[in-house]
Fold this sequence. Notes:
Elements: H1 9-16, E1 22-26, H2 32-45, E2 54-58, H3 61-75, E3 83-86, H4 87-98, E4 109-110, H5 113-127, H6 136-148, H7 153-159, H8 164-182, E5 185-186, H9 188-201, H10 203-212, E6 215-218, H11 226-236, E7 242-246, H12 261-264, H13 266-269, E8 274-278, H14 286-296, E9 317-322, H15 325-341, E10 349-353, H16 359-368, E11 373-375, H17 385-398, H18 403-409, H19 419-432, H20 436-441, H21 443-446, H22 453-472, H23 475-486, H24 488-495, H25 498-520, H26 526-534, E12 549-553, H27 554-557, E13 562-567, H28 578-582, H29 588-600, E14 603-612, E15 615-617, E16 620-622, H30 628-631, E17 638-641, E18 677-678, E19 683-684, E20 691-694, E21 698-708, E22 711-718, E23 722-727, H31 728-731, E24 734-735
Parallel strand pairs: 1-7, 1-8, 2-3, 2-6, 4-5, 6-7, 9-14, 9-17, 10-12, 10-13, 11-12, 13-14
Antiparallel strand pairs: 15-16, 18-19, 20-21, 20-24, 21-22, 22-23
Amino acid sequence: MNLIEGLNPKQKEAVLQTKGPVLILAGAGSGKTRVLTHRIAYLIEKENVLPWKILAITFTNKAAKEMRERVNALVGEMAEEIWVSTFHSACVRILRKDIDKLGYNRSFTIYDTADQKNIIKECLKELNYNEKNYPINNVLGTISNQKNELIGPEEFYKNSKGDFRKEKLANIYEMYQKKLESNNALDFDDIIFKTVELFLYHPDILEYYQNRFEYIMVDEYQDTNTAQYKLISLLASKHQNLCVVGDDDQSIYGWRGANIRNILDFEKDFKNAKIIKLEQNYRSTKIILEAANSVIKNNFGRKSKSLWTENQNGSLIEIIEADNENKEADLVASEIINQIEDGREYKDFAILYRTNAQSRVLEEHFIKHSIPYRLLGGVRFYERKEIKDLLAYLRVIQNPSDDLSLKRIINVPKRGIGNTTVSKVEEYVLSSGMSFFDIIREQEIVSQFGRAVSKLKKFSDLIGGLQVQSEISSVEELIEELLSKTGYLKELEKENTEEAKERIQNIKELISKASEYDKNAEEPSLQGFLEEVSLVADIDNYDETNNAVTLMTLHSAKGLEFPYVFITGLEEGIFPSYMSIVSEKEDAIEEERRLCYVGITRAKEKLYLCYAKSRTIRGTTQYNRQSRFIEEIPKELINIKNKEKKSSDLLAGIRNKNRILQSYKPYQGALSSKENLGSKNISLEYQCGDLVKHLKFGIGTVEDIRYAGADYEVTVLFPKYGKKKLMAGLAKLKVVE
């Protein structure tokens, strides 16, 4: 087989460059997966590299599955020996073999976000810290950031000396980590952190994997954080045959620890690195690519490149202007209906937005217009109560030290073990250092718990029996046995409500998932099943054959493509977000612009950019100008649909007759300069919808302007201080460009 036939010159160069460090700068839609799979096949077929000497890392199970299928098609069964997996899956595989060297049991549990929050709640309670002062999401974010930078509790505490709040956070981090260890559990960040720790503390294990993986390839390198960078650097340090593929223009996960410097500084970190640019796009029309290039070129922190295509010019980009978010959703729905009548399918359309909260209005209008849709990023299947209950049972069967999971299901379904009994056992856990399960198995200890003795024994016998069953049964059979012995399903059947029926369907879906796993896994096991469901991501559930419109955030859309794409909420303060506008970080707006670039390049045939002149957020109506990202697209590439007449009044219906400034002209699209509002004494350089800065209150949005004698009364919404009515002459508000 000719493995480079059909590749363009740059793709061929990337496939043939097999030795030493290589950075492939792959623009959106430039065929990077094709290059990676052909490169793997070339190593095996032409360079005689043993398949098990190759490690290919991706960020999603979906991408890993696609890569393996493509390699299988090229080289056959030999591809099964290649490690093709996500960062987390590869690290879990390594830890299952050697985590005991770090003091953990190999049957460790992987905790999701909900589990982490429960642990943090326990920590705050035991430390007697007020949850209002230490919000759980904020604490989790701090701990995650530290782990992504490979900073443990002790080092974080040293770095926090003299900062009261940080010292308290360090105390929470320390207790949180101890609780994870006592539960024999890891969170997602630990999976990478502990693997790096294992390599650093045990050089012999690192050397084993360095010798094992002579050739390493990493996809989406721009999304790596410090811990992932360190992991790859350690593995590649011996042979230096490291090929990374990525696009700095698509680095959009800085908020969760991704470090764009990893890709920008690759040639500094890996000497004599070969840089290859893939700039030919096979996905989008010329007009869509010109728009994408015209937006992203406004960023300074990027490597120079420009996408081009041999595809047709295509349609102009449609700008949809609406009065408010309801009208925006209605216009989007109407456009989809028109296209469906012209022969398109619902699955051809994707609606992208900056935040999940924006989906509500869209969903309401899609229901109203009978448009089928699927929502990516809503309540995940594995986060539903009944599914978490059953998975908690399976976790305890697999890892009896998992106190968190055990406490979740000890009285589910109800078996008469109340909070008082649980609290007594917990006290014993704290004083003895034993696990919850070990305590309730000890008859001498349990005898202290009064009337609950028989109930605790019955529960421990139930788990013990299911543990024996897990050794001889498939995962599907184990779940069926679990449902039978606990009576979980019978309880739901007795309820006989619509909600109970839906939960039963979800349980059946879990059984189907287990059956599928039992059939497809090389060596099926309860441990393997729990790993698979723990590491699943929203995008892994995306089914492109489902004939429905897709609604998702821009962050979730990376890696996907659709014939028709709508980007909604393109207003200053929404997209780019208000926080990025006022951020002190130089890169904040640039990351928002990269996010816009990702959104634009999801479109294959037609792109719609939508904005509303007013939008109600958290009960407050805001008037924002259209996004700067629309203004960065050349006018000859766009067609403005539904443009309101110049006489339309943004504030119609809410004015107070003659008291509101009659000469005020609302913002009408992308004006080249601001309208000056003036009286005899004062000239205003801002209008409703503008961002302004106040010396005391910071940056806010102008909501209203009224006559006040020789002055103006200006109402400004400040995120931190709320609405303030200010006299323009005294406030000295400055426009934020």
